[in-house]
Amino acid sequence: MTAVQATCASCGVVWLSPGDIVVRVCVDLQSSAYTFRCPECGLRAAKPADDGVVEILTLIGVSLEEWYSPDELWEPRPGGAPISHDDVLDFHVLLRDTDWFGRLEELVDDHDRRSRSFRRGSRPDR
After folding, report:
1. 3-state secondary structure 55-113
2. Could you tell me the pTM of the whole model?
3. 26 partner at 20 to 30 Å CA-CA among 17, 32, 33, 119?
4. Which of 69, 96, 111 is a domain's end point?
5. For residue 126, is pLDDT > 50?
């Protein structure tokens, strides 16, 4: 029986069978890793794997999973500043109100109205 030596962050060196390991290849990013659950402590582990490691592991019978990055990663990002801690706190305070959804709709409608007038060339209301 073939055994593979791997390293658990908690237990150190452990021995695994090919059925205990999965090689995962991200087709979009051309990166690979192998994953396993430690047979001693149950901790999950993921280790980077170059092409040579992928080839050896698949040759001995380790299963191979190909995956793709989510489409959302390739979508264009909206303009504007990233969400800040203050934005999160403001949203939290907004959610305390029983009419939080109506207030949120007002904020979005107000923003949309300003954006449309700005795009037409006029200065947005302040």
Report:
1. HHHHHCCCEEEEECCCHHHHCCCCCCCCCCHHHHHHHHHHHHCCCHHHHHHHHHHHHHH
2. 0.60
3. 17
4. 69
5. no
